[in-house]
Every structure is written in structure tokens, then in C-alpha cells.
Amino acid sequence: MIARRVERGKFDLYEEQARAKAKAIEHEAEIILQNAKVKVHEAEQAAKKEYENRAAKLQEEYDRRFKELREKEESLKQMFKDELKHITLERQEIKAEREEAMSLKQEAQKLQNEYRQKLTETLKILEQHAGLTMEEAKELILQKAEEESRAEIAHIVRKYEEEAKREAKRRANYIIAQATTRYAGEFAAERLINVVNIPSDDLKGRIIGKEGRNIKTLEMLLGVDIIIDDTPNAIILSSFNLYRRAIATKVIELLVEDGRIQPARIEEIYEKVKEEFDQQLLEEGENIVIDLGIGQVHPELLKLIGRLKFRASYGQNALGHSLEVAYLAGIMAAEMGGDEVLAKRAGLLHDIGKALTQEFAGSHVDLGAEICKRYKEHDVVINAIFAHHGHEEPKSIEAAAVCAADTLSAARPGARREVLEAFLKRVQAIEDIATSKAGVKKAYAINAGREVRVIVNADLINDDEAVLLSKEIAKEIEDQVQYPGEIKVNVIRENRAIEYAR
């Protein structure tokens, strides 16, 4: 019993301690709840205050923007009113001016009618007093004027007749003098053939090829006449075109050096040589410009300058003539106080159109001026191109110097040959007639102009049409070209099939 009482005492003690702890926890929970309520209240107050502040700011921003919009609206309304008022005033002014113009027009019409009426009355009075009608008076006045000017007209006619006689005499003396000083024997032969030296005559057979395949390919590609005769260690190339003849000479020299002479190799070397010649033309033009010291020149003009080396005018090399004109013009311009460099530039480019005349229609003057304008050349250069053949008057010392230098270079004894130039023009006309036909790819005048080789597109021209085409070309040459003997028209139709094994 004592132990039970002791245990009950302990239990009561534990119960009291647990109740004390529970009261302490409950009190602590109440304190935490009160603190939480305080914090929630503070947070609500802060949020409310933040809301009120932001609402105030937004209201302020709204009021400001609304005020700006109202101000802009008022400004636009005022501007619209002012513009409408201005337009109304302009309309009123235009209406007033129109009414005034109509009034002036009616008044002018009225004055004109009055003038005509008074003029008619005056003419009637004059007719009554003079005893002449209006037509008779006009005829009398014109007759009197003709009589008074007859003497002056006769004086002018006499003056121009005398000038024409002097010019004709001077021109006749010039032609006679040039004809007597420019004669040179064997000149055409020197300028129309090239001789290619070969190591041995055995190569002649290889150049001809089996059944003439190699020589046919060469003549078709190169556009020259290849003459293989008994001349030892030599092949003759004949063509009026200097550029074709130069390419042909180089191609045959490379073929002889290489030793592999066959159609495929011929075409390969021909394309390679053609590319090299184009590059050489550019380098030739660059070297000439550097030697003359005329500054920068467009690359396309440099190519054309190099191409002048293979052009001739009346037998005179176009590049040599242009260089002579450049040097002479520079000297004369310097002596007269002009720009020496600009005169040299104009002298070099004055015949640049001759490098294009075989590919394009038109005179070398118009072509040269057009190409120089395209590449922004100086106005003095353009004027010199037009002036050296009388298309314009020289407008500067440099242009006048170019005209004088051109005359000096062309007119010196032995510089030009009329006969060769006529021959070249005739051969060129034959090629132009052939290439003007539909389906023609290339045309070459060979054998000193006694044969024209026409290469046609096999897809466009069949065998029967090739026969008709040769007749048409021959007929047109007969009608348009003057030539001695006869000209053979040779139409070639070739069809190739090419495929690659890969």
C-alpha cells in the first residue's frame, strides 16, 4: 500500500507537470497568434498604402496624358482651321484671278477685232489713194526687195564658186602628189602572207594529215589559207586579217614543236593560243600607256589599244599610226601651251574605233566616241575623235593638235596605200555577206579573196539548204562586190557528237 501510494504521488506530480507544460504551450501559442495577427495587419496596411500610392501615380499619369491629348487635339483643330482658311483664301484668289483673266481675254479679243476693223479700213483708204490692191502692193514690195538683193546674192555665189574652185584644185594636186609618192611594188604580198619555217619537209605530210583532215581542221579553225608547195622547209599562210594570221602562225609553230598533229590537238592548241593572244593584247596596251605616261586607262580600252596592232588603214598599221599621232600631238600641244599628257591620250585613242569596226556596225569615229564615253574619257578625247574626221570643230588646243598630227602621220609619203585598203574592204565585204545569212557560224575569206569558206550550223542547215545557201551568197556577192575573176563559195556543214567517259 505504501508503494501504491508512492506511485500515485508520482503520478499526480507528473500530471501537474504536464498541465503546467500544456498551459505554457497554450500561452505561447496565443502569443504567436497575436504576433501573426499583428504582422498580417501590418502587411495589409503596407499593401493598402502601396496600392493607394500606385493608384495615385497611375491617376496622375492618366491625367497628364489626357491633358497632352487634349492639347494635341486642340492644336490639330486649330491647324485644320488655319489650313481650311488658307485653302478658302487661295480658292477665292484663284477665282478672282480667273475672272480677271477672262475679262482681260474678252477685252483683248475686243481690241483685236477693233484692230482688224481699223486695219481693213486703213487698207481700203490706202487702196483708194494709191490705186493698188493689197496683192498688187505685196507683189511690188517683193519685186523691189529681190532687185535690191540680186547683186548681193550674185556676189556671194561668185565668192563660193571661187572658193570651190580653189579647194578642188588643191584637192586634185594633193591626190596626184599622194599617188606619185605612195607607190610601192610587191606591197600587198608583203602584208598578206606569213612564212612558217619547219625543220623538215616530212612535217608537211603530217600537217596535211590522212585524207587532208589536219589541214582542213586548221583552215576551218584559223580562217587562213595554208599553202604547202615545193618551197623547202616553209609553209605559207595567206589571209588579209593580221590577227588571224598571227594566231595561225603561232598555232602551227606550236604544233610543229609538239609533234602531235591531229584534229583534237589542233583545237586544244588553238584555244590556248587564242587565250594567250588576248592576254598579250592587254599587256601590249599597258606597256604603251606606261611608255606614253598618260595615266590610268580602263582595261577594256587597253585591250582595244593592243588590238590596233592587228588593224591596218590604207596599208598603215593602226597602232603605229596612233602612236605617231600621240607623240606629234603631245609635242604640238606643248609648243602651243596646251596639256601635253591630255593631247597624247587623245592622240592614242583617236582611232580606237578601228579595233571594233570588224565586229560592230558603224564608222570607227562613232564607235570610238561611244566606247570612250562608256569608260568616262575626257571631253577633249571625245572631241578629238569626232574632229579628226570633220564631224565636229576642234574645241581645244589638244583636239586641234590631234587633227594636225593625224594629217601629218597619214599624209607623209609612203605611209598609206589606197590599193591595199580597197582590197581589204572588198574581202571584208565578202565575209560580212556570208555571216549575215541565217545559220552561218563563221566565214573566212581565203586565197587572197578568191574563195570564201562558210561554216554553218548542221542542226539548222541540211545538205540541200547548204547548196541553196552557197548560191544565195554567190549571187549577193555578184550584186554587191566589185572584184576581178571569180570567187568560190565553199559551204561546210559538219555535225559532231561529243560524250565523255567518266
Could you describe the 3D structure shown?
With 502 residues, this protein is mainly alpha-helical. Among the domains are: 133-181; 193-292, 2-Layer Sandwich (Ribosomal Protein S8, Chain: A, domain 1), CATH 3.30.1370; 300-416, Orthogonal Bundle (Hypothetical protein af1432), CATH 1.10.3210; 419-502, Cation efflux protein, cytoplasmic domain (Alpha-Beta Plaits, 2-Layer Sandwich). Helix content is 71%, strand content 8%. It is built from 15 helices and eight strands. The protein has helices at 2-130, 134-181, 187-192, 202-208, 213-222, 242-258, 263-292, 299-307, 318-335, 340-349, 364-374, 379-387, 397-411, 418-435, 463-480, and strands spanning 193-197, 225-227, 234-238, 312-313, 316-317, 440-446, 451-457, 488-494. The strands form three sheets. It has a three-stranded antiparallel beta sheet. It is flat, with a radius of gyration of 51 Å. Mean pLDDT is 79; it is low at 175-190.
